[in-house]
Automatic annotation (TrEMBL):
CDD domains: PIN_YqxD-like. Pfam families: DUF188. Belongs to the UPF0178 family. The lineage of its organism: Bacteria, Pseudomonadati, Myxococcota, Myxococcia, Myxococcales. This is UPF0178 protein BON30_30895.
Amino acid sequence: MKLWVDADACPGPVRDILLRASQRLRIPIVFVANKSLSLPRSELVSSVRVGAGLDAADNYIAQQARSGDLAVTQDIPLAALLVPKGVVVLDPRGELFTEDNISERLSVRNFMQELRESGVMTGGPSGFSSQDRQQFAAALDRELARLHKPRP
């Protein structure tokens, strides 16, 4: 099992929660971004710097992640690629993307993008709050407990 992080837009508190979980449970974690990242030195922590292309990090994660892995991304099209592969996908606010909700989430995302492209101001997400951090930590703990089987 690996943890995959779409790191280009990952909030700092989420990164810190993921790093602590990786160390506590001894799960390898891979941060994928199109920029250099400052990460702690650990045999469990690695990063991949991809090219500057629009979906370079997403494409890398989609190609490398396997069933039973857990990915953190706020990119719904990436989640739509990962969920059918059996990858557990959380967004940074703790929402779990599943076979039951990913089609609807992708449709809403595409509709909102069409509105923005036609000039409609849709607003952005609210700032990342302490409640968001708590929701993410709880969702991560729940999913890791379900997925992770400690090695003897």
